[in-house]
Amino acid sequence: xxxxxxxxxxxxxxxxxxxxxxxxxxxxxxxxxxxxxxxxxxxxxxxxxxxxxxxxxxxxxxxxxxxxxxxxxxxxxxxxxxxxxxxxxxxxxxxxxxxxxxxxxxxxxxxxxxxxxxxxxxxxxxxxxxxxxxxxxxxxxxxxxxx
Length: 147
Fold this sequence. Notes:
Elements: E1 3-6, H1 13-23, E2 27-32, E3 46-51, H2 57-64, E4 71-73, H3 77-85, E5 89-91, E6 97-98, H4 100-112, H5 130-146
Parallel strand pairs: 1-2, 1-4, 2-3, 4-5
Antiparallel strand pairs: 5-6
Helix pairs in contact: 1-5, 2-3, 3-4
């Protein structure tokens, strides 16, 4: 088992690094080259892979490297669908598990919801606070312990 992270917009990279070190799980953070940033710390358990800037480079790299039982951390539902087809386990940045029985609804909701009136859309904060990060970390640990 390994962890593959769609790292372009991942707000919980630090939490994933800590958990990968704690459980000694090889973890691969995949991002496009236009996201180059300072990477602090070193570990034998996580690596950064930078791919070209084309639209689906990150998704293709991750999809091509999924093995059965791998954990994929992403907010991208198309990538989640590919990961599920390859028997991967998908978790969002907020700790939600995406499974075969809910991916169709999530894809449908994402495609229909933006078409509704802007005035009817609830305001949802996308910022991750300390509690969100702790929740994510606990959910990731819970998932790893269940495998």
